[in-house]
Write a structure and sequence with these properties.
- Chains A, B, C, D: The active site is at residue 145.
- Chains A, B, C, D: InterPro entries: AGPR, AGPR_AS, AGPR_dimerisation_dom, AGPR_type-1, NAD(P)-bd_dom_sf, Semialdehyde_DH_NAD-bd.
- Chains A, B, C, D: Pathway: Amino-acid biosynthesis; L-arginine biosynthesis; N(2)-acetyl-L-ornithine from L-glutamate: step 3/4.
- The structure is a homotetramer of 337-residue chains.
- Chain A is an alpha/beta fold.
- The first copy, chain A, has helices at 12-21, 62-68, 81-88, 106-113, 145-159, 187-190, 205-215, 249-259, 275-278, 307-321, and strands at 2-7, 27-33, 57-58, 71-74, 94-97, 124-125, 139-141, 163-172, 195-196, 221-228, 235-243, 266-267, 284-291, 296-303.
- The first copy, chain A, has a seven-stranded parallel beta sheet with strand order 3-2-1-4-5-7-6, with helices on both faces. The first copy, chain A, has a seven-stranded mixed beta sheet with strand order 9-10-8-11-14-13-12.
C-alpha cells in the first residue's frame, strides 16, 4: 500500500483528494494536515466523508511527513509549496504539487505571481496526456485547472502546426475560487449571472502559452479570457482556433482521434461536451466543429475543475509515478444528471 | 415633494428603497448615508441605479438629517435604530424603522436580541393590511420579512378564532442574509441545496406570535422553522394550520376574500403562488387548500423579501403616513419569468 | 457474478442503476431494455457512461429476460411492472420493482393510482433499514423517494409510540419528475422559485402512513406536503413531529442512535443534514432538535432521491437478497461540493 | 393615448410587452391575441400581471386589428409576421415586428430561414442607437437578441474601421428558447452546466454581419458562437476583437464615450457589466479592456434579452415612431440583486 499524505487538506482540492483516495485500492491515507484545524476530525469540515475515514488534522514538521508518507500531495497556496518541496524530497518520498510553484520557469513565476521563488528546481508539468515522462519523476507540478481544459482542447492542432490564432473563452464553476466565501461566490452576485475576470491577463495564460508553444514553436497569438458561471464545478472551454489552412470537421476528427488514441480519460463524444457528463469524474470530453466561413475551428472541452483540473489529475500522476494503471481509483462515471 | 433620507443605504434594503424611490412621483431623494462609504457615489455600490441618481453617500449627524428630511428610513442593524429614533422624531420628521428595534415590547426585545433597549417608546407595527392605524403615526416599526409572509397567510383564520396549531415552514431567498458574503451565501454551499436554520427558535417567531395572538387571544401553539433556498429573492411560506373544526376550500375562499377585500397588494390567485410572480413587486400572493383528512389547512404565501418583506412595505407605510394612495411608486408588476 | 437486467433503462433511475452497477464487483450487466431505443447504444442517452459499458438497448420478451438474468430491476412506469412480475418470477430470477405497483395493498393501490391491479401478489416493502426480511424474498417493492426520507426521519419516534401529529414538509430536486421536460422542470419556472404540488393528497402519503402505522398502530394524524426546489437531486424532509410528551434533544439522540445502530447508510451528523453531503450517495443523513415550547420535535433528513430514494436502495436490496454485504458497490461518498 | 395591440401575446416577449405597456403613460392596451387561448384572461398565463389588466385574449382578423390599434407589435414566430404586415399597414397603423421576417434582405432570409418570403417590402432595422431613421417609418424590424448585444459591443470600433477579426462568444439566459419546455430548458440539463449550440452557423450571425459591414465595408471576418447559461434572463457577450492597430484602454474609452454620447440606454460602467444590473431593464451596459499582447480588445456587453433584446427595444422604437421621448415607460432600474 502507498502511504499518502495531504498537506493543506481542508480546502476543496484537499477534499477531493480525500474523496478519491479513501476508495483507492492501493493507497492508505496516512495523514492530512491543516494548521488551523489541527486536532479536529477531518470530517468536521468534509462532512460528506463521514463514515469513510477517521483521520484527525495534524500539523507535523516535514521530517515527520517524509518518514510516514510514500507520496505527499501539496494542496497549499501558491508560494507555500516551495517551502515544503526541498524538505520532502529525500529520494524515497514523491511529491505532487497542486500549487503553481513549479509549473513555470522560476523567472516567469516570479514575474507573474509577484513573489520570489526560493527553490529553482525544475519539475515536469503533469498534464498527463502530454507528459508521460512525469511517470519517472519524484516531483510533478500538477497543472492549473484552466490550462488543463484549454491545452487539451488545442494540443492536437498545435502539434500539427495548424493554429494561427487561438482564443480561449473559458467558463468555470465557482469552486475554483475556493472554500472561503468571496464577493464572486456570494450567491446573489453569481446566480443568474456570469462574471468575467482578468480579461486579458489571467495567470493561467502563461501555462497555456508554455505548453502550446512547446508543441508549436511558431505559435504566439494565444488569448485567454475566463468567466465564472453559476455552477459549483466544471470548466467549459470554447476554443476559437483560426487555422493556417481550411479544415473540415472530418479532418478534425481524424487529427483528434489519432492524437488521443488509447488515452482513457479523453473522450470525444459525438455531441457537444457537457459539464454534467464529467462532474465528479476525471474525464476531459472534447468535441469540435469547423467553421467553413473564416478558417475558424470551434473546439469545446469539458472537465471537472476539481478532478481532472486538480485532484483527479494529481492521482493520475501518482498512479503513473508508482507504476500503476493510471485509472486506478479514478474509474468513476459522473453522477449525471 | 416629500424629502426622503435613507440611513444605512448601502445594503440590500437600502438599495431597494432607492430603486423604488427614484421613480416615486411624490418623493425627492434627499440623502443616503453610509459611514464607511461617505463621499462615494451611491452608484459605486448600487450599480444598477447608474443614470437614476447622482447622490453621494454622506455621514451626517441627526440634526442635519432631521432638518433636511420629511421622512427617514432606518435601514440599519438591530440595536442601532434605537439610537437614531429619539434624535430624529421632532414632531415634523417621520421615521420608518426597518430594523427590529421597535417591533416588540421592550422587555421581549431585550430577551430575544440579547441587548439593552435604550428607548422604551412604543411604535405601531407596520404590517399595513393589519395595522391601518400606522397612517396616523410618526414612527412605524416595519415588520420582519418572515413575519410578513407568515402572518398574512394565517391572519384571516386567526381572526376567526379557527386555528388550533400553526406550523410555518418558510423558505427564503438568500438576500435576506445581507450583502456581505457568508457561509450560507457561498454558492457551493447553497446551490443545489436547502439550508434550514434556527429550527425552533428564530427571532422572527416572536413577531408572528405577537400578531396572531392579538387576533386570537387563545392561540398559543405557533411554530416556525425557516430554510434558505437557492434563490436570490423571495419568501415562500407553507403554513400547515390545524383548525378547530373542519373547513372546506370554499370556506377558506370566503374567509380570505372577505378579510382581504380592497387590499391592493394582497392577491388570491387561483393556482399556487409563485416567487416568480411577485419578484421585485410589493404583492403578497396567497392560496389555500383544505385537507379533509386531519382538519389541516395548507395556506401558501409568496412575497419578495426585499419589497413586501422590507423596503416596499416601508414605502407603503410612508404613503399612508403622508396621506397618499398606498400604491404610489409601488404599482409595478414582477418581471416574470 | 450476478447477471443483472434493467427494464426501462433509459430514464434517470435506469441511468443510476447503470452508473452504480458498472462498478459493482459482483454484478455483470447483462441487458438494458427500452422499447423506443432498441438497437441504440445505452451511451447514446446516458452519455456520462461512455467508456464504462457497450450495451445496446434491447426489447426482448420476458422469457428471454428471465433466462439471461439472475436479477431484474423494473424501472418502468406505475401500472407496467405488474405485467412483468408474474412472467419473470420463476423461482430463480429475483425482481426488484422500482415502481409503485407492489408497495401498497392491492385495493389501496387501485384507489390511489386509479387503475386496476392485475396481480394480487404481496411483496415486502424494501425500505431496508425497517425491513431486513426483504433479504429472503424473490420480489421486493422498492420504496418511493419521498417515503424513504420521511419514514426514516420519523420511524424511531413512531416505533417508540411517541408521535401525536406528524407534518412532513418535503423539498425535492426536480429529477424526481423524470427525464422528459415538463412545466415544472422548465428552467424559467423553477429557477429562483419553489413549487409546491399535491398539497394535501400526494400518492406517496399512503406509503408513509402504512409504514408509520405499522410501527405505531395508534398513529393516524400524518400529513405530507411536497415541494420542488431548484436542485437537480436530493430530497430534504422537514418533519414537524408533535410528541405525546416533552422530549429533549438528548432524548432524541439516544432514541435515534439506538434505533439506527449498525446501519451503515444512516448517518446522524452533529450539524443539520445537507443535500450536498449525500448527493450521488446512498446515505440518509438525519438530525433533530427539540422545541421546548410546544412538544414539537423538528427532524431533518437528506437523501439523494435517485440513489437512496430509488436505484441505490434497489441495489442495497439486491445485495441482501443475494447474501452480500449491503454496502457492496454503494460505498461511495458524495462528490461535495 | 396610443392604442396598442400585441399579436401573439402569450409568450415571453408578449408578456414583457404587456408588463411594460401597462405602466406606459401614453399607451392604452387595446388588444392581445392568441389563437389557442382566445376567450381566456391574459392573466391566466401571465399571472404576475394580475391586478394590472383585465384583457381577454382575442383572435380577430387583420382588419379589426388595424381599426382598433395605432400600433401593432408582432410577437409571432418567424415566417408568420410576413402574413400580417401587408394587411396591417394601411398608412395609419404602425407595425413593429419582433420576428426575423424583415431584418434581412428577402433572399438572405429565405436562405437562412429555409422558407419562402411572401412580402419583399423593406424595413428599417430597429437597433435604435444605430438607426435613428426608424423614427420616420411605419414598419420597423426589431433586432434579434444576440445581434443587439453583439452589435452594440462592436459598433464603435467597426465604425472607426479598426476591426480586423471579431469573435463574439455569447452567453444567453434560457428564456430566449421560449415559454415551452425543451431539452435545453429542462432544469437537470441546464443547471450547473452551460450548453453551446449552433457553434458556427447561428441564424443571428447574419444580422451582426449586416450591421457591422454596413459600418465598415471591409470587415468580413466575423464569428459568432452562442451558449445557454443557467440564467432565466440576460445576454452577456464577450467580444474578442483583433484590431488593425494597437489600442489602449484609454483609446477605447474615448471612442465608446464619443460614439454613445447622449444615448440614454447605453451605459459604460467602470467595472465589468453584470446581467444583474440590467435585468428587467432596457439598458445595454458595455465595458472594454485592451490586451496589449496581441492587438486584441475584449469588449463586454450585458442586456436583458427580453427587454433591450426584444420587447423593451420594441417600445423604444414605438416611442420614437410616435415622436415621444425614447425612455417613456422604460425608465426602470433593474431590481438588483
Amino acid at each position: 500500500m502507498i502511504k499518502a499524505g495531504i498537506i493543506g487538506a481542508s480546502g476543496y482540492t484537499g477534499g477531493e483528494l480525500l474523496r478519491l483516495l479513501v476508495n483507492h485500492p492501493n493507497v492508505e491515507l496516512e495523514l492530512a494536515t491543516s494548521r488551523s484545524l489541527a486536532g479536529k476530525p477531518v470530517t468536521s469540515t468534509h462532512r460528506h466523508l463521514e463514515g469513510f475515514l477517521d483521520l484527525k488534522y495534524e500539523n507535523p514538521d516535514s521530517e515527520y511527513i517524509r518518514e510516514r508518507c510514500d507520496v505527499v500531495f501539496l494542496a497549499v497556496p501558491h508560494g507555500s509549496a516551495m517551502n515544503y518541496v526541498p524538505e520532502l524530497l529525500d529520494g524515497s518520498t514523491k511529491v505532487i504539487d497542486l500549487s503553481a510553484d513549479y509549473r513555470l520557469e522560476t523567472s516567469e513565476f516570479e514575474q507573474i505571481y509577484g513573489m520570489k521563488h526560493s527553490d529553482p528546481r525544475k519539475a515536469v508539468y503533469g498534464l498527463v496526456e502530454l507528459h508521460p515522462e512525469a511517470a519517472e519523476e519524484d516531483l510533478v507540478a500538477n497543472p492549473g485547472c484552466f490550462p488543463t481544459g484549454a491545452t487539451l482542447a488545442a494540443a492536437p492542432l498545435a502539434a500539427a502546426g495548424l493554429i494561427d490564432i487561438a482564443v480561449f473563452d473559458s467558463k468555470t464553476g465557482v469552486s475554483g475560487t475556493g472554500i472561503l466565501p468571496t464577493e464572486t461566490s456570494h450567491y446573489p452576485n453569481l446566480a443568474e449571472n456570469i462574471i468575467p475576470y482578468k480579461l486579458t491577463a489571467h495567470r493561467h495564460r502563461a501555462e497555456i502559452l508554455k505548453e502550446l508553444t512547446r508543441l508549436d514553436g511558431k505559435l504566439r497569438n494565444i488569448n485567454f479570457t475566463p468567466h465564472v458561471i453559476p455552477s459549483i464545478r466544471g470548466i467549459f472551454t470554447t476554443a476559437h482556433l483560426f487555422t493556417k489552412e481550411p479544415l473540415s470537421t472530418d479532418d478534425l476528427k481524424a487529427i483528434y482521434e489519432d492524437f488521443y488514441r488509447n488515452m482513457p480519460f479523453i473522450r470525444l463524444p459525438s455531441g457537444v461536451p457537457s459539464l454534467t457528463a464529467v462532474r465528479g469524474s476525471n474525464f476531459c470530453d472534447i468535441s469540435f466543429e469547423a467553421d467553413t466561413a473564416n478558417n475558424r475551428v470551434v473546439v469545446l472541452s469539458a472537465i471537472d475543475n476539481l478532478v481532472k483540473g486538480a485532484s483527479g489529475q494529481a492521482i493520475q500522476n501518482m498512479n503513473l509515478m508508482f507504476g500503476l494503471d493510471e485509472t486506478l481509483g479514478l474509474w468513476l462515471p459522473a453522477a449525471a444528471p
